[in-house]
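Late entry, written up from scratch paper. The run itself happened at the end of the previous shift, but nothing got recorded in the book at the time, so transcribing now.
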Amino acid sequence: MAAFTGSLIPLLAQAMHLQGQPLADPDYYAAAAQITAHLGAIVEPPARHLGIRGLQDLFREHADRLSHWVPDRRVPPDNNRCERELRPTVIARKVSFGSQSEAGAQTREVLMSVLHTLRKRRADAPAHLKWVLDRLAIEPKRDPFALLFLNDTS
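Output as recorded:
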């Protein structure tokens, strides 16, 4: 187990630090490909330890999801930004003792997803959300997705 993690952890750290390196594109992509090849070599032979085998399976079965950063250096190899953006929502949920029902939890998930997306797309997300809700009150058959995200302001 120590040999597996001792090989895997430094490669993952290299992947996370690669984006910040002042490399020309060809050098970056060559290094990214090399890291990915080394990761593949580590996870390919099935381990005897079931925990390690489960981790290897994760890497093998979701290789396409785990390597979006390789062909496009603008994509970070980690999800730290996502984790930081979710933190206030998670803290608010814990402080308020969560939702009292499954429907309440789903409503919170949808609303938070919409609000976070709007914050990335609109200068004044709360004002746009209010505008959408006002529009839907007048025209309930309108497509909320189009109003929220497709610049459908007619």
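The chain has two domains: 2-66, 80-149.
(Scratch paper discarded after transcription.)
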